[in-house]
Amino acid sequence: MNPGSWSLWRAQIGAILRLEIKKNFFARRGLWVYLLALMPAVLFGAHSYLMLRHQRVCNLGRDSLIFATFFEFFYLRLAIFFGCVGVFMNLFRMEMLQKSLHYYLLAPIRREVLLAGKYLAGVVMTTAIFCTGTALSLTLLLLHFHPSIVQQYLYGNGGLRHVLAYVGTTALACVGYGGVFLVMGFLFRNPIIPAALVLIWESLNPFLPAVLKKVSIIFYLQSLCPVQPPAQGDFAFLAILAEPTPAYLAVAGLLLVTAVSLWIAALQVRKLEINYGTE
Amino acid sequence: MNEREIVFENVSKFYGEVLGVNRVNLSIPPGITSLVGPNGSGKTTLMNLMTGLLRPSQGHIRVLGVTPDEPERLFQFVGYCTQFDSFPRSMTGYQFVYSYLRLHGKPHAESKDMAWHALERVKLTDAAQRKIAGYSKGMRQRIKLAQAISHWPTVLVLDEPLNGLDPLVRAETIALFRTLAEDGLHVIISSHILHEVDAISDQVILLSSGYVVAEGQIHGVRTEVEDHPMQILIRCPAPGLLASQIFQLDTVVEARVHADGHGLLVRTRDPDRFYLLLNRLVVDGVNLESVAPADDDVHSVYEYLIGPDGGSI
Question: What average pLDDT does chain B have?
Fold first, then answer.
């Protein structure tokens, strides 16, 4: 195959995906990511269990607001955020520390293709974990409601669209944060520093000028959430969306931020050297 | 640009302020080339530069006409067995070689066949389905070698490939290198084991503190070392008589009778004229049992150019 052909790149990306997923998907060191992803499901499951046990039924509208708040303030801002820190920053860094990255660099692969393969592997892993977590949380949240109420919610009141929007937002969060933390993995050796910097930046988002707001992931993700958290209570200040962005613009904006991150990562990976002694 | 050689043009590599290699100019032809030098002399740096794992601070490198900045072209024909003794986790030997071939973009069946063939060549088929984590040092060395040769490269770069191998496997591996070199491959080896380097190399590159101090065929390099006249050991029944006759050449600087009284160690600045003189003496009836150069080897060249305390060789 021609070194510059799409079919070769596709085959190589497939090989990288298989290798990365085999190495990392069920690795013991990634257990905490699964715990983060499944924590809401456990909480909503416990809630439904208690409701069923005490034969009480909540208000579906109120529960969907609770879920929206939990989704935005815990799942997006913390669980997926730190999950992506753990997965994407380590795609290259961990192999550098384990002194095994050079095997990839000794294969006839364009560095950009290697980057794409590793990024896709990270996206596949985090999307599978966190989208499962989101879908499971919603399922368990609805568990204690009567099937007729659930059916009415899903098919009559746009609930199914909400479910798809939550799962889609989760996947886009993995895509966006993945790109950001992939590039951070090249620029920083210690993941805590960039994670803290990005977390502060994302938390400051509601207070930033309109132009700077757009240079973040959470800005677009907030706009994609189907239900906005109530604008009262302790976290109300974080929930304020000065200029809600239409969904198509939010997706485009998020993909643009991701593309810029990946472009910077591509520049870095071309300069990458194997010098394990300094790691 | 020579497309049959590995060319370094004024290549320097600095790690911050630490010198890796400095102003290296080399042309490496096909055959077995050994990089010799103490620890920290720049052998691994040179290998990492030619395979693109490091980038030169200045200068240009071309491997058979291809720059190391193009891994997608370079590793079609280059195999590199590094010194790093670490592997991707939880892989068997077979998976290690097979997955590398899949990274080349080769389909499953072809990768499988090529992987098994490479494992056969390094005699590791029996242990192929075992995890590398359970391999001995020698087996790990061989599985790296299997990976490096699995895609039939024409340039094979081997950083300390004989480390950890037992004598039998070592001999077999050296034989494999010879076969590869006879097939027209570039085989570039760094090694600490000088007598083996001496036995297998077509040419040597001597490195010290990041500089190339000598390069070429061993005999040629030895001849260039003018500060140290060539030593020749002659076994004969009457060394005293021989000593009196060889001083007719003004290039003979020393003749020492061997401790057992049956040999003469001669130091000469012009070995070619000295051998001609010996021929004449034999014709004239002087009895000689054997004549052999005593320091026309890598070890001596290394010691003369780099010094006996040059490193851990």
Answer: 86
> ipTM score of the complex?
0.82
B86:A109 CB<8 A = no
pTM listed for this prediction: 0.84
Tell if the CB–CB gap between B71 and A111 is shorter than 8 Å: yes
CB contact (8 A) between residue B84 and residue A111: no
**Interface residues on B facing A, Cβ-Cβ cutoff 8 A:** 15, 48, 51-55, 71-76, 79-80, 82, 84, 86-90, 99-100, 102-107, 147
HEC secondary structure over chain A: CCCCCHHHHHHHHHHHHHHHHHHHCCCHHHHHHHHHHHHHHHHHHHHHHHHHHCCCCCCHHHHHHHHHHHHHHHHHHHHHHHHHHHHHCHHHHHHHHCCCCHHHHCCCCCHHHHHHHHHHHHHHHHHHHHHHHHHHHHHHHHCCCCHHHHHHHHHHCCHHHHHHHHHHHHHHHHHHHHHHHHHHHHHCCCCHHHHHHHHHHHHCHHHCCHHHHCCCCHHHHHHHCCCCCCCCCCCHHHHCCCCCCCHHHHHHHHHHHHHHHHHHHHHHHHHCCCCHHHC
Shortest distance, CA A186 to any CA of chain B (angstroms): 16
Asked if the model's pLDDT at residue A131 lies above 80, the reply is yes
Q: Flag the least confident range among A79-83, B4-8, B282-286.
A: B282-286
Confidence grade of residue B312 (pLDDT, cut at 50, 70, 90): very low
